[in-house]
Design a protein that fits this description.
Shape: globular
Radius of gyration: 14 Å
Number of strands: 9
Length: 160
């Protein structure tokens, strides 16, 4: 297993490039429940360049019909990042004061299930994010109303 550096600036640059458009290499899930986690997965991939091809429990995208649920479903994506000890990005739950650009924030609007993913693009003077579904870049986190929030620090990754 080889450690992989997470290029935070590459993730943020990707978010900047595609916040208000869609990369034609990826299917747009906007009309199928939302495109936020698909977009945040793309951003994280731009910063790590390693996927986890473990069927069902991994994190990868080849095309719209050959991908894992964790690539597009917020709650599963967050759980993958936190629990991953194989190839791909690895994350941990942190406090908001420990966030860095390129980290992931997830929101729950009801029932404690995380359904929206955001990428941190700035932390000073306040936390701002980028996302899809309600497309945004440099939107203040404080403008969201939510029931629950989790902050996931991307620590880097591994590849076989």
């Amino acid at each position: 297993m080889k450690k992989v550096f997470y290029n935070r600036q590459a993730a943020v640059n990707y978010a900047y490039d595609y916040a208000f458009s869609r990369n034609p290499k990826y299917y747009d899930y906007s009309n199928l429940g939302g495109d936020c986690t698909n977009f945040i997965s793309q951003c994280v991939f731009a910063g790590i360049n390693v996927m986890n091809y473990t069927k069902i429990t991994g994190w990868y995208y080849n095309n719209a019909s050959d991908r894992t649920a964790s690539w597009t479903a917020a709650d599963i994506f967050g759980k993958f990042l936190i629990a991953n000890n194989g190839s791909g990005p690895m994350g941990s739950l942190v406090k908001d004061t420990e966030l860095e650009i390129g980290d992931v924030i997830q929101l729950s609007f009801k029932d404690g299930v995380f359904t929206h993913s955001l990428l941190v693009v700035s932390i000073y003077p306040e936390i701002t994010i980028s996302t899809h579904t309600n497309d945004a870049y440099d939107r203040p986190l404080r403008t969201y109303n939510y029931e629950k929030i989790r902050y996931i620090h991307i620590a880097g990754g591994q590849k076989y």
